[in-house]
Amino acid sequence: MNSRSPSTAVVVGSGPNGLAGAVVLARAGLDVTVVESAAEIGGGTRSFVRDGLLHDHCSSVHPLGAGSPAFAGLERHGLRWAWPDIDCAHPFDDGSAAALFRDIDRTASGFGGDGRRWRRFFGPFADDGDDAPRDRVGGEQNHGVLYDDVFGPMLRVPDHPLALARFAMRAGLPAMLLARTFRDEHTRGMFAGIAAHAATSLTGTGSSAPGVALIAAGHRNGWPVAVGGSRAISDALVAELSAHGGRVETGVTITDFSRIDADVTLLDVAPRAALGILGDRVPPRVRRSWSRSRRGPAAFAVRLVIDGDIPWRADECRRAGTIHLGGSAAQIAAAEADCAAGVLPARPFTILTQQYLADPTRLRNPPDQVRHALAYAHVPHGCSLDGTEIVLGQIERFAPGVRDRIIDVESVGPAALERFNPNNVGGDIGGGANDLRGLLARPRLSPDPYATGVPGVYLCSSSTAPGGGVHGMCGYRAAHAALRARRR
């Protein structure tokens, strides 16, 4: 790694953020090398085949990825999205379920008297990206308030101030307060379940923000899967990088910045790992902020192989790619509060995905009756308890008899998630706490939170704005910040 030239870049880490940042730099003409300590690229976007079934290791459904500017143009490298009939279903204990569709009118029609309010709350942000993109300073384009302002640093002059103000009026509320503005429990539960994706207390200020953003993105782009597994995203990013002369080296671990010789460096690692790499080069003010960065609750994942379809009581669940297992809004809020307090809930909020409904290539060829699903529950950070039974219990709660159909179960707890990807510290797959402080100061309060204080070095992991999820925007924005600095 001593092939220094006037325009070289090194990206440490090949998760979707690192690869997205590498693509931006390569398109700008830099000679880019991505180094990855694992034997396989992709971070959270890795997939594997077992017994003829295609499984995703971590990320599985991508409501924030399908419309992301960081992934624009990857279709030419084979990236394809596929949608189930119902994007998300939210079952209740009485056997009924709420349904979320890409079409906002179809969704709202299922919410009865709450339908008009649902359209008014979320419709403007779902539709704001329909205008033709316009070039802006720095080579970026206009993608509407959602991707230009919401999916970026909060301490900056917004591109769409009025639209962002409207978004903030909703997003700044506690999720449970916004949920209570709806009359029907089905609408309340659906919103609470989507807000709970952030794995944070639903009574805190700003806890509505992730829910509003996910709903808006969903009505704009749906909740699709990547055909051929989530690895198709990282494969397409690498193909685009290679098309611009970039390269990836696996099995290379960077623990000392002296090993890097480049004009620009992006670090797709957690803040404390970045401190270990950069050492005393990091200014004290940045070091203090990074040292205070906090992690969120953990995930406990369970992969299931099932003889036939899951016997859901609600028909909507049989057609949905994503299913929220949490019950009422109050039950979800109580479970999330337990996690935030370090207590393992008896009924943790659990998200289950049935990717094969949208992408049949994930099944055996020729297809038989064997199905598979990925479920993960929110548990306390660093939890060492085996959560398999409580996750299965949540599935059985809404699909009685499912245990009798299970062929194989594989559980992946917080410690295993961290071993698989060191950025998942303590099993936190979201890059850090998502409370108000975590949303505003990610990982520190700054108009350029990607800058490390070390010239030419930028942090681009999900610990930076806009945070967790497979959208590549952390790397995309960090790379553009690096290019702006070079022009100055």
UniProtKB/TrEMBL annotation:
Pfam families (UniProt xref): NAD_binding_8 (PF13450)
SUPFAM superfamilies referenced in this protein's UniProt entry, alphabetically: FAD/NAD(P)-binding domain (SSF51905)
Protein name from the UniProt record: NAD(P)-binding protein
Organism domain of life: Bacteria
Coiled coil spans: none
